[in-house]
Amino acid sequence: MSSDDWKTWRELRLAALQEAPYAFGSTYERERAFGEPEWRVRVDSPAGAAFVARLDGEPVGIAAGYLPPDGDDDVAMLVAMWVDPAARGQRVAERLVTAVVDWARGTGRGELELETTAGNDAAARAYERCGFTPFAGVPSTPDGSVWRLPLR
Q1: Which tens digit of pLDDT belongs to each residue from 13-47?
Q2: What backbone torsions phi and psi does residue 38 show, to the nearest 5 degrees?
Q3: In terms of CB atoms within 10 Å, which end of the chain has fewer, N or C?
Q4: Distance CA 64, CA 103 (A)
């Protein structure tokens, strides 16, 4: 996506925060207040990349990758992943993960990391299908789990 796609990202991100508020570290109320500049930066950040999945030309899912500024220099993050419930079961999540994996490999990072919230079993199953495993270096907490995928 480019910064010109910010309206599509905003629409899907706000839908995600309403449909699955338990799955994210932000809230619908907080992000609904963002203006155009904040949305453009989220879609077109030099430290990351945003992706939208489409079925029959309609946007049905989002995911983003970013390079944490003060994290492990070999790890990229997968964040903001969401698929519209009407599109689930059609490999949309796998396509989005593949896009972020390809982006992360292009940055030279050796691992892709993500976090799931406790009880988000459907997301955990999707990430397992994509090759992620729970990261032994960070134990699961009541809030969730950290998952990693080797890129090399």
Answers
A1: 999 999 999 999 899 999 999 999 999 999 999 89
A2: -65, -40
A3: C
A4: 10
Q: To 10 degrees, the CA torsion angle through 29, 30, 35, 38?
A: -150
End-to-end CA distance of the chain: give it in Å, rounded: 25
- Structural tokens at position 42: 């989220």
Compute the distance between CA of residue 82 and CA of residue 44 in angstroms, rounded to an integer.
18
What are the tokens at 13? 């991100």
Phi/psi for 119 (5° steps) reads 85, -5
**Given strand 133-134, what is the order of strands in its sheet?**
48-55, 58-66, 75-83, 111-117, 144-150, 133-134
